[in-house]
Amino acid sequence: MAEQEDQQAGGVLSAMVGRNDERGRIQRKTLWVLAITQVIGTVGVGVAPSIGILLAEEVTSSEVWAGLARTASTLGAALFGVPLGNLAARFGRRVALTSGWWLAALGGLLLVPAAQYNVVALLFLGLLLIGSGSAISLQARFAATDLAQSAHKGRSLALIVWVGTIGMVLGPNLGVPGQWLGTIIGLNVYAGAFLIAGLCMALAGVLIFLWLRPDPLLILQREDATSPAAPRPVRGGFGRIAEELRVNRRARYAVVAILSAQIVMVSVMTMTPVHITHHGGSVNLVGLTISLHILGMYALSPVVGFIADRIGHRFAIGIGLVFFAGALLAGGLWPQDMRWIMGSLILLGLGWSFVNVAGSALFSTVVSDHSRASAQGGVDALSNLCAAGAALASGPLMAGTSFAMLTLVSGLVLVPLLLQTLGGIRRTPVD
Q: Taking 50 as the threshold, does the pLDDT of residue 198 lie above it?
């Protein structure tokens, strides 16, 4: 009898080890697929806030309409966040990511005739659809955590954020290959750049469709469905967020971190190029400052993930708050010195990286499995809505006051997060 029990226990243990090995293999493949497609897809996404802005100014010939066009891709990301999250919850990451990239590709291709023939309607529609690419690139970072071990979720998420740096740096520079392609097939520089962007996003969708098998979220959902205590899901992305936030204190803290970081970063970053040029800075200085800011946002993502996993998410968020404080103080106290402004933008990017990556990893860790995809999509939608609102509000605020006042008001947004972080440290040394 004892021998039979030992054999049964050994069989169960072997099955568990085998399942963990298979899960690890699928997770490694998932990370490779997400990393490759993230680089390719974000090349197309990265064209919107750079060449897209130039195109908007040329097509509309109006600062007012151009300003609305600049926010179209951000609004698109907000609008597509929840539907794509719900699509993932129902059919898996593969269907959602493929659909998102192909919608964004359609947007990029619509911008080709918009640029070539100055069609305002196609300009807005194209930029709106490209926002789907932003939403899906955000969803990809959560997809990296579906099968990751709890101790490695931060690093898995941070890896996908980090590789997106390549695409986000290459995207704004599509003007050169766009001009080369345009001379061959008879398109102007903007149309050529968006043709390349559309093809990159379409290719990302094809690779996801072909390679993201088996689907990591469907595996997680099957495992969750076998649990007798599996809760009944709540319909709708925002409904799932509301349910999570109602019962989950750590999820509330994570959401406050994600949204606060997004509002502060977008508010200051959006108006910095205007502030620099108003004080005699060159276009080259603007480009260098924004490039360094983007490096600050993404370059240290793996380090943030490591710190969040090994020391704690709250500790990483605390570091981000210190960087944010340095950025806002530098911009507020020395707004006339372009060296301080450049340093401020670097610190701003680092602050966003630590708070956003750690907050996203924490949310992925504490959110319920049955509401994972929809809740994540809802958070991304809220984040993009906050970004759009911050971008729209920052211009009038700086015009009515000053860049220094803009940094002060942005700092006030961080106060609730600071209080929650300090309160949590008193309760527990980790999360």
A: yes
In terms of Cα–Cα distance, which of 383, 420, 303 is closest to 142? Answer: 383
- Enter the tokens of residue 266: 């977008």
| Residue 321 CB partners (closer than 8 Å, separation 6+) | 351, 355, 414, 417, 418, 421
Tell me: pLDDT of 233 over 50. no
What residue segments make up the domains of the chain, in order of their start? 27-224, 234-426
CB 154, CB 303: distance < 8 Å: no
Q: Does the pLDDT of residue 413 top 80, yes or no? A: yes
Alpha-carbon torsion angle 89, 92, 94, 99, nearest 10:
-40
User: Angle at Cα 79 formed by Cα 294 and Cα 221, nearest 5°?
Assistant: 90
Q: Which DSSP category does 214 fall into?
A: S
pTM of the model as a whole: 0.78
Structure token digits, residue 403: 């860049």
- The pLDDT-based confidence of 72 (bands split at 50, 70, 90) is confident
- Who's near 334: CB < 8 A, 6+ residues apart? 340, 341
Query: 393 or 408: whose pLDDT is higher?
Result: 408
353-372 pLDDT tens trace: 999 999 998 988 888 766 77
Query: Which one, of 418, 317, 400, 321, lies nearest residue 358 by Cα?
Result: 317
The CA distance from 301 to 358, in Å, is 9
Return the CATH fold of 27-224: Growth Hormone; Chain: A; (1.20.1250)
Distance CA 301, CA 152 (A): 14
Average of per-residue pLDDT across 419-428? 72
Q: How many CA atoms lie within 13 A of 296 on its CB side?
A: 24
Alpha-carbon distances of 108 from 43, 47, 196, 380, rounded to whole Å: 11, 9, 8, 21
**Angstrom distance (rounded) from CA 118 to CA 390:** 28
* Architecture of the domain made up of 234-426: Up-down Bundle (1.20)
